[in-house]
Amino acid sequence: MTARTPRLSRLRRLTPGRGEDGAGRSGRRRGATPKVVALGGGQGLSASLAALRRITGDLTAVVTVADDGGSSGRLREELGVLPPGDLRKALAALCGDDDWGQTWARVIQHRFQSRGDLHEHAVGNLLIVALWEQLGDPVQALDLVGRLLGAQGRVLPMSAVPLELQALVKGHDPARPEDVDTVRGQATVALTPGEVLSVQVVPGDPPAVPEAVAAVLDADWVVLGPGSWFSSVIPHLLVPELLDALVETKARKVLSLNLAPQPGETEGFSPQRHLEVLARHAPKLALDVVLADQAAVPDRESLADAAKRFGAAVELAPVAREDGSPKHDPELLAAAYDRIFRMHGRIGPWR
Known about the structure:
- The chain is about 40% helix and about 15% strand.
- By secondary structure, it is an alpha/beta fold.
- α1 (about 5-15) crosses α9, α2 (about 40-50) crosses α14 and α6 (about 125-135) crosses α7 (about 140-150).
- It is globular.
- The two termini are about 35 Å apart.
């Protein structure tokens, strides 16, 4: 238990949890399908959701809200709203493979091309922000968009306020390679040519969305990653109430590693170094499984040693697309998650 546990308990009371009969919030008997919560942002979270929706009907995405670039950044600056871009991408990833789902996925991802103010704005961003203004409730608005799209899961922001990402970066200015500077803004951190030493969010004690906390506490499995390590994965661990929930939950936790280092943000990182920086930001976090592509791990022993510090086993599986790009294949990733859920948890009645 941490010093913030009373606040976490207060948040938990805001949303109904499991009853004594083992039923969840939906009233369904626990075990009918695994309750899975996926945390992240951007393309990494989208890849995870596209895989997870193939193996569970009870899926919640908890999405970072620190984006300050592109269409999201413009809307955030002009209207003071949460950045909608990563939320939109998560909703698109949860769309079904039928004509309805794929049509809506293309529509909300569509970007206007013009010489005016609409240039590069995504349709889905404008739709989400319009509903936020109409309803005055980010969670209710996202649920409504999800119903419109027929999304196979729920999308929640990790915090109720837009966050600014700040990083300590060594060599951000190539002319001063040994100097450490504070770099502000997710878009700038993601593209820095220097070495990111640590990140934090501003405000430093942001409120978590209660529904996100409740989902983590009520989950069977929590999936963290893949994605931009410092700007999409680690920020979830910087929201105190969400970190408390991740530490306290009885859910099993799997960390999904990237297929390759990200230019700029994690240039030159080994798979085990990803774990080391994660541990520095959340030393109390325990994991059950670390998932990595078998072709992306040159030193399996070092990765296993790094995983042991979290109490985790390493699972290696082919999860990359066959075209050689550093992108996950949804079917292969789904097969890997399914095997992990069966082998590292109890054999659930959903089988």
